[in-house]
Amino acid sequence: MIAPAVLLALTSLTETALAHGGIWNYSIAGNWQPGFFPYYPAEGQSSIQRHWIDFSPIKDVTSFALVCNSPGSIAEKYASIPAGGEVKAYYPGWPHDIGPIVVWMAYCGSEPTSCDSFNGTGKYWFKIQEVGLQSGTIRNGQWALKDLLASNYTWTTTIPETLRQGAYLMRHEIIALHVPFEPEFYPECAHLWVTGGGSEKPSEEYLASIPGVWRQDEPDLHMTIYEEPTSSRTEWKIPGPPVWRGS
Ligand SMILES: *[C@@H]1O[C@H](CO)[C@@H](O)[C@H](O)[C@H]1NC(C)=O
Ligand SMILES: *[C@@H]1O[C@H](CO)[C@@H](O)[C@H](O)[C@H]1NC(C)=O
Ligand SMILES: *[C@@H]1O[C@H](CO)[C@@H](O)[C@H](O)[C@H]1NC(C)=O
Ligand SMILES: [Cu+2]
């Protein structure tokens, strides 16, 4: 017997799952664990992922939902990981193949639970990874999203080895570019406790505000991949600050 609330959730799941998606699970230094699943009741869930409402994209680049999705309320847990460790994010059934993946972090504070009181809105964010168009054309080339589809919907990121210890938000962001002039943003955040004895932090030039980093008049986001001169271009630059890799 399935409870009506769950049935309802599953119905909306089949509708939206066809078009969109997000991170269901994380592997932290080799161990898989569940994220927050938006189509189950929040009650009873306990994970490292900030809460999100559904698989739909965020299209308003000024929205607070761009930070850690909507509602973006705090996660119940933290995953401990040494600097230099590997995080894998699992996007089962992810449907789109045109667009980049950008992975960001923000320092919440020096206590193991500092993210509990950290909103994330503002100039705190630095990129630790970005993959856009690696070869070919904007219309048909090898985008990060094609790599994601080719690797069983799994995206792998290494935490910079020299990053100072602390609590961090890790923000995965897919930008899907298949709809003309309507880039779709798919952010989700996780709580991390980074250990390992590093001492570095990114300087000002690496930091961006979210929301704020993406703009409505940014030509490389608000474009159509289906028409020239864009479709046959072989270069596409991810807007925003450079990636911080530590020294
Ligand atoms: C992956 O996430 C789903 C949805 O939250 C959950 O049902 C499943 O148990 C998770 N699997 C693992 C290995 O964490
Ligand atoms: C963060 O703060 C902004 C501005 O006060 C607010 O609008 C937004 O909803 C907050 N986000 C979260 C996740 O609480
Ligand atoms: C894809 O990755 C998920 C998460 O690690 C795993 O549960 C699943 O078995 C993998 N599927 C294949 C075909 O490798
Ligand atoms: Cu979609």
In words, what does this structure look like?
The protein has 247 residues and is mostly beta strands. It has a single domain (4-210), classed as Coagulation Factor XIII, Chain A, domain 1 (Distorted Sandwich), CATH 2.70.50.70. 10% of the residues lie in helices and 28% in strands. It has helices at 4-17, 65-68, 144-150; strands spanning 25-28, 31-34, 79-82, 86-90, 101-109, 122-131, 154-158, 166-176, 184-195, 207-210. The strands form two sheets. Strands 3-9-8-5-6-10 form a six-stranded mixed beta sheet. A four-stranded antiparallel beta sheet has the order 2-1-4-7. β8 and β9 form a beta hairpin. The protein starts with a helix and ends in a 37-residue tail after the last strand. 37% of the residues are buried. Residues 1-8 have low confidence and may be disordered. The structure holds 2-acetamido-2-deoxy-beta-D-glucopyranose (3 copies) and copper (II) ion. Copper (II) ion binds next to loops. The site of copper (II) ion (CU) has 4 residues, from loops. One of its GO terms (molecular function) is cellulase activity. This is AA9 family lytic polysaccharide monooxygenase. Its main location: secreted. It catalyses: [(1->4)-beta-D-glucosyl]n+m + reduced acceptor + O2 = 4-dehydro-beta-D-glucosyl-[(1->4)-beta-D-glucosyl]n-1 + [(1->4)-beta-D-glucosyl]m + acceptor + H2O. Its cofactor is Cu(2+).
